[in-house]
Amino acid sequence: MKLLFVGAEALPFASTGGLADVLGSLPAALKRDQGDDLDIRVVLPLYQSISEKYRDKMEKVTEYYVQLSWRNQYCGLYSYELNDVTYYFIDNEYYFGRDKMDALPQQCRSCKWLFACNGGCPKDRFLKTEMGEGGLNYMCKGFMQIFERVAPYMDFMKNELQHQRPPANVMEWAREIKP
Ligand code: SF4
After folding, report:
1. Do 113 and 172 fall within a single domain?
2. Residue 47: Cβ within 10 Å count
3. Contact (CB, 8 A) for 77 and 60
4. Both 90 and 118 in a single domain?
5. 19 pairs with which residues across the strands?
6. Residues 87 and 158 in one domain
7. Residue of the nearest CA to atom 8 in ligand 1?
8. Does ligand 1 lie within 6 Å of residue 111's CB atom?
9. Which of 100, 111, 131 best tests ligand 1's pocket when mutated (most atoms within 8 Å of CB)?
10. Please, what is the Cα angle at 46 between 15 and 7, to 5 degrees?
11. Each residue's pLDDT tens digit, 50-99
12. How many angstroms separate the CA atoms of 19 and 177, rounded?
């Protein structure tokens, strides 16, 4: 039998939560159980955060280009064997690099909505800030309007939760204040 898992994360390569535990342990456990009757492989993004100790031992399988609307995106494919399981890694800096976290202009880094927005998707960051720095999301103004608009309601619900009351009370509160 052939079995292919496709996921966003797997231990020990990349982990933010429980999915990484499952994809890091289940394929190897199935392989141990089924032996040669099972050909099991896992597909993951090649995140920039994956340790060099794994990257250095990956083998390049192939590379190709994928047409995505008006963009022609590079896609590299690497493999790595671990516990009799073949892991494949999809390489694309545009989608799996660290720009989401690291490539923020100062305007975003000092923005009060950074915690909720984090600059938005890196592919949409093609405006300049008022200071002339590149990398600002073209939907920034819209993001700010949305965050300003919903903030009082979020604050109300947070307060209700902190006082052990249902956050759905916001509905009645919203009707009373007639925004
Ligand atoms: S709202 Fe605008 S300035 Fe603030 S983090 Fe988002 S994109 Fe950056």
Report:
1. yes
2. 17
3. yes
4. no
5. none
6. no
7. 108
8. yes
9. 111
10. 55
11. 999 999 999 999 999 999 888 888 999 999 999 999 999 999 987 887 66
12. 42
